[in-house]
Amino acid sequence: MTPTKWGRVKAMFGVKLRKQIKKTDPAVEHAREVGSQSETQTNGPTAAGKSTVDHLGPSSLPAIDHPLRRTAPHSLAFGQIVAGRFEILRFINSGGMGEVYEAWNSDLQEKIALKTIRPETASSPSVIERFKREVKRTRVISQLNVCRVYEVFSHTQDSGDRLWFLTMELLEGQTLLERLRRQGPIPVEEALDLVEQMVAGLSAAHDLGVVHRDFKSSNVMLVNAGIGRTRIVITDFGLALNLLTEHCGSLETSGGGTPLYMAPEQERDGQVGLAADQYALGVVICEMLTGRCPSRPDGTGRVHLPPSRFSPRWEAVMIRCLQFRPEDRFKDVRDVISTLAPEIPSR
To answer: What is the arrangement of strands in the sheet containing 162-168, beginning at the earlier edge strand?
Structure first.
């Protein structure tokens, strides 16, 4: 067989294999749908040139070389100085809104994450305003489990194009979605600590009137905190809403979110309150313990949990968080922890 014919055979095999996976593995499809929307920071060279889902560890599928595959050029280059003070150290990841880099802030003498906005996206004034709002919202939340966002900048490239970006805390780790993809469901004793931290981050935002609106496993980072501890960090407040200063039903702030995690009222008309984050938390807890999101059949308000051995308290927490009507959920997200308190070991 000639090299040309062999290349065609490999390409055809790859197409058929991908189609077969799509038909037989709904978990892969779920991860693609969720992960494709994340713009997370990830650790080291495994992320170079790949999306969140692409670098989720060793694949069980055979490697297939595709002669026509090309890697798109990045907006910034290694060693480039941006806005007069940020030196690009490495490319981390890319997502729907732009790219994330590790950079050195020469003014403060520290490493930061630099998140760019795609030029075609940045041409919209409303998008720039969204990023400015993200900075304003997250800067007021001073809490260990919420990613710190510092400032919005613009930089003129040598080509004359204007590049917008924001700077934020550099996080070394993996997303919760990646952890689930690699290792499967999380043991209850480990999940307890993670849920406590998620609740701490969300409640810190809620105390200031900020609802995340896009809380999901791919917006939760797992960072090594040393001595066998994992620090949870909630990221991406780009769709967040400050209920104290912003009108929920306005054109710019309505809708948004990720369907698998959206509360019914958010999916229906965009009218959200703090209880919308609690609904998303219920989805994430279910995903952590079972590896799957709960199902919500069309036309019904009842959510069905995947078959698993839940303790009564865990099941009660998920069912309460996932109530169709916001007023039927917990009055405060902290009530999740008080309900689980008897199962939380003393430290």
So the answer is: 81-82, 86-94, 99-105, 110-117, 162-168, 149-156
What does the DSSP 8-state code read for residue 213? S
- What angle, rounded to 10 degrees, do the helices at 26-35 and 176-183 form? 160
Closest CA relative to residue 218, chosen from 42, 337, 28: 42
**What pLDDT digit, counting tens, does each position of 29-87 carry?**
444 443 433 444 544 433 333 322 222 233 232 333 334 434 457 889 999 999 999 99
Residue-level pLDDT at 323: 95
Q: Which domains does the chain have, with CATH numbers?
A: 81-168 (3.30.200.20), 173-343 (1.10.510.10)
Question: Concatenated DSSP letters for 230-291?
Answer: EEEEE---TT-EETTTS-TTSTTTSS-S-GGG--HHHHHH----THHHHHHHHHHHHHHHHS
Catalytic site residue 207? no
What's the predicted TM-score (pTM) here? 0.74
Query: Which residue out of 107, 214, 277, 335 is catalytically annotated?
Result: 214
Average pLDDT, the chain: 79
